[in-house]
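[scheduler] slot 2 assigned
[scheduler] job type: sequence-to-structure, two independent chains
[scheduler] chain ordering preserved from manifest
[runner] begin chain α
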Amino acid sequence: MYTQIIMSKINRYKFHHLRSQLERNKPPKGEEGLAMLLALLTGLTLLAGTTGLLIRQLMARKIGAAQSYQQMAEAAALNGFNRILNTLNSNDPENYKGYLFTINNGESTSTNNWIRINTTDEAMLEELCTDITALPNHPSNQEAVWPTGLVAKDNNETKVSLPFIEDQSRTQRNDGKGSIQTFYRLRQYKPPAKDIQGGYEGRKGAARFQVEGFTKRVGSEDNYLARALLSRSLFVRSVVSKPEDWGVMGANNYDLGTTTINGPGLILLNVSNKNEILKDDGSCRNDLATSVLNNSSNALRDRIWPVMNRGLPATELFANTKNSKEGKEIFDEDSQRKDTPRVWSFDDSSKTNDFDCGEDQIVCTRAINSTKMSAPKGIDIDSKVIDKETSPTLKEYRSKVLYSNSIAIRACYRWTCIDGKPRIRDGWKFGQNPGNIDYGNQWTFWIPEETEKDRKKWTVRIKKQDICANTDEACHLYIEHINLENTTVLIENDQRPVVLHLGSPDETKLSNRIDLSEKSLLCGVNRQGTKCNEAPEKLILVSKNSLKASKQCNSNDLKNDEKYVLSIAGKSLPAAFVLLKGGTFTLSNDAEMRGVVWADNFCSQSKKFSLTTKNQNSLKGSVIEAGDELWNLVDGEEYTGYGRTITRGVRGTGLDIFQRW
């Protein structure tokens, strides 16, 4: 009982003590609202933080999706470029489109040139008769133009991009709102610049593509999820890829006559007016052989390849051989004057007044800038009499009296001269006395007479040690005159090629022509050989770049006083590469030759010319292949061939540039 009383008191004490403590800790009435505010602020802060985290997660997801779309667009631009490039670089000869590399193209009606090849000046090909193949169809719109997607209708222009997946039911990505695919189209293409001097090198240089890539929902043409513009530079180069495409004949003016070609190769026709070649629809005429090249038949029709303003190859093409270590041409030098080239002349006709280096000499040389001619030492020259010939000469007489029945054709007394009509007995007239010579108190008169002399057949052999003696590189010779009727000239060229430059670098009174009769011969031979080796790539004839180029192929261009003319007949020039810039290749009789002929004019003069382009050993292919092996005609840094070219995009020339918007 007592214990219960004690416990009851203790419990009451604890209760009153706890109550008093609570009353002491109770905040004042003014601070109860502030506590409530703090509690609310704390809750609001927690709510804002939670909301921010949620928004951040949502934004990160949206940004990630946008970046993903942008990456898809950039990949679409790059893949679209590769698809366009693959089409232009197609190896299918029936679907060749490399010619588009040479034409500027844009996305508007006025600049979309790839759809009107050879019908406008902006879309004109340099090789006019290139086979034009149709552009690929647009995958999703038959009215749209590949690869720009241009649709021009009722004076309105729209662009329809090209899908990578033609089946719209398929998707590359689905965000729950619809199917997402990537697309592309070409915005602009800028080709390499044209060569200033015409372009034997072919079109080469940096080209620039602008290809646009898109990410969008299928069926929504203008609602882009992302766009990217790729600017890509590409190295474009044109090359002649095979002997059949080489121009084995090339000229600005043709008179082909009955010319034939035995072997691979084309006839390049350099033109400046496309209307001479093309029909209204942009295709080539079928009568070019007869109407433009004056071929007596249409047999060469398929070999004719017209090119716009390409010109002829540069003479530097034959400056040095492929394996040469020299950086410049090596010319034959005068033995008495070091570092001074000498100029060669050949004449067996006895009809050229300014050709004289001694009695019975048919080969003369002189140093450049010197008029003194002499017979070269060490040259093997043989001759034999084949018959007699008479030649008219003027014999001079003097007499105190000039009879009226004189057979003289000219007479002079003191400073006065008279000319006969044609003889004095036939009448006379006062003539000229250019030197104002005093002939004295007696008549000096000239009577035509015929002189009989031996007619000889000559053989001239120029050995390796006779020219460019101190080098094994290609040997270059200046030629100011060759007029041969019964002479054989053999030049050793089996160990190195020889290049004959028609035209003296200084002033000359001689012809600057090469005239070879049917009974003459100019060819290369092997060492100690007497038979022509018929290696045309080792005997090169080039002309000085004449400032005067003939406009037509007519008789006036072929007169004996016309410079830079090569005239052959029969087999007088059996094998050679001929390059006459500003010059004329002509025939005095039917002729045949192995090699190539490039000249400003080709004039058959109604004679038959047979050109062989096969190597003498048919197992070695064409003369072009032999020439390329020796001179590097195709794969050099500057030259890519002379003929029908194949144009390719080879490699990039800069970094890819992506533009976003």
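[runner] end chain α
[runner] begin chain β
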Amino acid sequence: MATFFTGVLGALVVMPWLAGAAMAQDAPPAVDDSALVARGAYLARAADCMPCHTADSKQPYAGGLGLNTPFGTLYSVNITSDKTTGIGGWNFDDFKRALHDGIRKDGAYLYPAMPFDAYTGITEDDLKALWAYVRRIPAVDAPNLENGLIFPFNVRLGMLAWRELFFRPAYFTPVAGKSDEWNRGAYLVEALGHCSDCHSPRNVMGAIKGKAAFTGAEIDGFYAPDIASAALARTWDKDTLVQFLKTGSAPQKTLVFGPMSDVVHDSLAYLTDADLAAMATYLLDSPPPPDAPAPQKASSLPADVYARASKVFVDNCAACHQTQGTGLLGAIPPLAGNPAVTAAEPYNVLTVVLQGLPADARFGAMPSFAGRLSDQQIAELTNYVRTSWGNGAAPNATAKMVAAWRETTKVPDYGTQAASAFDCAQVGGAPGASGPDPRAVAAISSALQGGDLDVAAMVDSYQASAPDASPARVVDALMAAYCPVVAAGGGDDYAKLAKLRRFSLQAAADASAPVASTPFPPVSVVWAVQAGKSLVARGPKSLGGPLVCPTDNGKLVPKALAADAAGLIGKPNVPVSGSTGADWAHALVKKDPKARLADVANALISAYCGVVAGTAGLEEAQQHGYVESFGQQVIQTLQLEN
């Protein structure tokens, strides 16, 4: 139950987190917190902090304890209040981040030897008590020793993969239906006592083997026995187990030795009888170990898909977007809790992965992964980020959907030689040649020349003429039909390319929706969906029946933006004429320049829908028509913003 284990990457460097800096303030607070300090001292005993951070008994908590691991030697660090060699410059937030998140003050990841994977369960109140105690540990000038890990284990960035695969920060949550004593015991065993760190075998990456938790492991040449409830309950009763935890011996049972003797001497012997009884209650009735690490357990993806997708994320995304999808403030956008990631449709993620993003005033550039990842890999990666770290989006991306969106990457970037040539694909060729149906493409091209830009109708038209065509083939066909129309038109090349790109994105959206693994939730009016730096439109299945406006609950559109849109529109006469929708779109972007373009469009559509719905004397068909034309104008206007 101590942190003395050697099978983990970084073994018990037990708090390389506290390796350099700070904790205590120059003067103690004026408030009498002696009771809090006393509770913190008790909790530090329960957490068994001192033995791991003490090489010389005359200098407790000064670190320097060498721990031999399969990856080299690690040394525990000085966690006294010394400001130069200890942690005398830390504050509570630094301390909490180390224990709860496994990240030390300088932002470096801790090795899993420091049991932050257990300490993450410590409650906020107990963290404050621990901090009150730890920050008063007398200062000891004891420089930290350099770890002796071999390459590549000496590179802390390697912890990205470990954290993504095996760690999720989470406070302890009592189990409903269990007694207070059982839950107290669970908290002491699983969080503070981190018993599983010694009594569980570990995999090659130093993470606890989920299914084998508590079933025993080797530690420093000793064997920490199986303490899973199935084994303990066969030969131990509660009173005998309590006696063993308190004294290290039990009649006709065993006598403690090895690392466990330090645990009893320095930790368990100081716990109250009630806490020892709680621990025994839990250990004799602990639940079966989880069959998967916490991140995978929380995922809605099948185990094999999760394994592949998490590896793709670690290999390609985690270095920038960080484990837990937090991103980097001011440099890399977060994936966790990002509305662009968790939208009903996965289009934004697909577009960004395939096309990349240019740098802007807020974030750095992101490269395209179209040439690195297959359609299946991108689909699984998309579903992974949409369902990880608390994201609750549907895992609805498919390889066929990705293939359709991959077609949009064929539109060249303005300024390149390919863009200047504006060389449109030729359709046709030898009999039996693969490719879009030339007659269907010609028919669509003719309609486009006549000014018909109803992309959804064109998708339906092509699919009717070529029912076996994949979504990617449909997009290819529509681009082949529209490209010569754009090329023959007037205007600058950049404007032509922008038209072709917007058209390709809309074609991909309309063609790929039917192959989503689960149907998208229906929309009642035309609706904007973010697709990288641009937008696509989704329309209702029918324009018949009563007009139903989107619910104004802050979930579909940010409330502040919705209020700005309503204030901008006011109470106009409907239908609004000319470029009014476009003018409002520009004005709202100017007012809220950091808002997502899809949110801007949808805020205006929602506000205008409410005005139309409240206008007396309109027939249902008129209402739908007014909102549809307004929404399309707003979306097309905002497509030009980037």
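[runner] end chain β
[qc] chain β: The longest helix spans residues 493-512.
[scheduler] slot 2 released
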